[in-house]
Every structure is written in C-alpha cells, then in structure tokens.
Design brief:
The structure is a single chain. The protein is α+β, with helices and mostly antiparallel strands and 106 residues long. The chain has a single domain, classed as Alpha-Beta Plaits (2-Layer Sandwich), CATH 3.30.70. Helices cover 42% and strands 30% of the residues. A hairpin with an 8-residue loop joins strand 2 and strand 3. The radius of gyration is 15 Å and the shape is globular. The chain starts with a strand and ends with a helix. This is NIPSNAP family containing protein. InterPro entries: Dimeric_a/b-barrel, NIPSNAP. Pfam families: NIPSNAP (PF07978).
Length: 106
C-alpha cells in the first residue's frame, strides 16, 4: 500500500477555483481504484498552502492510475481547468507507507 501526499502552493486569491479543482479529483482518484483521504485547504496560518492525500494498493497501481489519467477525458478536463485558472502555482508529491492500528482492521 502507498499513500501519495501532495503539497500545493496555490494562488490565495483563487481559493474558490482550487476548491473546485479538488472536488473534481476526489472521485477521479476513486474511479481508478484509489482511496482519497481528502483535500485540506488553508484555514489559519499560511493562506497559500493546501494538502491532499490518497492511497493506492501499490506503487504499480498508482503508476497505472497516472498513465490512465493522461488519457481519461475527465482527468484531462481537470488538468485543463487548473491550467486555465492558474489556481496552482506549484506542487510536490511525496509517497508514504501507511501504518494502521491492527485492532481497527479486525
């Protein structure tokens, strides 16, 4: 299992546009077999940092999602929306191996 953590630097004046972009991606990640854990938008503190996390069963499954997303019309539209609105200044992607409470799984 692998969790992708995204840290976005966004245009603080385009928070509404970024929120729309985020709402587009949650079902798209799930469409390709991932589990989205949500977007975390600025509240207190920095007004231009947003986070997102989603999990795939493996790094291979994540890579398949990335490849398929480049051909999927809904994903292409979401990429285009971000490009047109310029709500994202940049982002970085980091991968983690989650550790869960074993009792919670039982």
């Amino acid at each position: 299992m692998v969790t992708c953590h995204l840290r976005y630097i966004i245009d603080a004046y385009k928070l509404k546009e970024f929120e729309h972009y985020a709402k587009l991606w949650i079902p798209l990640v799930e469409k390709f077999g991932g589990q989205h854990h949500g977007y975390f938008l600025p509240s207190e503190g920095a007004n231009n940092v947003a986070l997102a996390m989603f999990t795939f069963p493996s790094l291979t499954a994540y890579e398949q999602y990335r490849t398929a997303s480049l051909q999927d019309p809904e994903c292409i539209a979401a990429f285009k929306y971000a490009e047109e609105t310029r709500c994202i200044i940049n982002y970085e992607r980091t991968f983690f191996r989650p550790l869960f409470n074993e009792k919670a799984k039982a």
